[in-house]
TrEMBL record:
This is Uncharacterized protein. It comes from the Bacteria. It comes from Streptomyces cyaneochromogenes.
Length: 76
């Protein structure tokens, strides 16, 4: 992906380049979500196990994490 002020974002004509970029984004987001779960949400849930909000966030982010893990491992 390239960017310039005149034409904005441009993708390569090669699908392999798109896929590599998308995977890199998925990997970065997986890292962010994993750190957020481990560092913030899991300790919150552990300290307040009856907190519905914390449980809901942990469950939903667990699903997001699982999806990102699959997307980063898939072969084309």
């Amino acid at each position: 992906m390239t960017f310039n002020r005149k034409t904005g974002f441009q993708l390569s004509e090669e699908p392999e380049v798109w896929i590599a970029y998308e995977r890199a984004v998925f990997e970065a987001e997986l890292h962010r979500i994993t750190n957020f779960i481990t560092g913030i949400v899991a300790p919150h849930t552990k300290k307040t196990p009856k907190d519905e909000w914390a449980r809901l966030v942990l469950e939903q982010l667990g699903g997001v994490k699982a999806t990102l893990e699959v997307l980063t491992r898939m072969e084309r």
